[in-house]
Write a structure and sequence with these properties.
This protein is α+β, with helices and mostly antiparallel strands and 69 residues long. It has one domain (2-62). 28% of the residues lie in helices and 20% in strands. It contains two helices and two strands. A two-stranded antiparallel sheet has the order 1-2. The longest helix is centred in the middle third of the chain and has 15 residues, at 25-39. It starts with a strand and ends in an 11-residue tail after the last helix.
């Protein structure tokens, strides 16, 4: 897992990057939302979840492949 944190005028913004093993996405999302629900009980705490694919995963969806590095 990779983590990035920055301070804003409204608090902190934290971004985490997880690499999910093949076939484990549903399990991962369920665990993620369980953690979010625990924090949602804290007054003033806000959260937003965004799910992104890697370029290697996303490019074939539009008929392309990632260029070689």
């Amino acid at each position: 897992m990779r983590v990035a944190v920055r301070v804003t005028t409204n608090g902190m913004k934290v971004i985490t990057i997880h690499e999910v093993k093949e076939g484990k996405f549903s399990e991962f999302i369920n665990r993620l939302y369980q953690q979010v629900l625990m924090y949602s009980e804290i007054e003033g705490y806000r959260t937003e979840q965004e799910v992104f694919m890697s370029g290697t995963e996303a490019m074939p969806l539009v008929g392309l492949k990632m260029p070689e590095e």
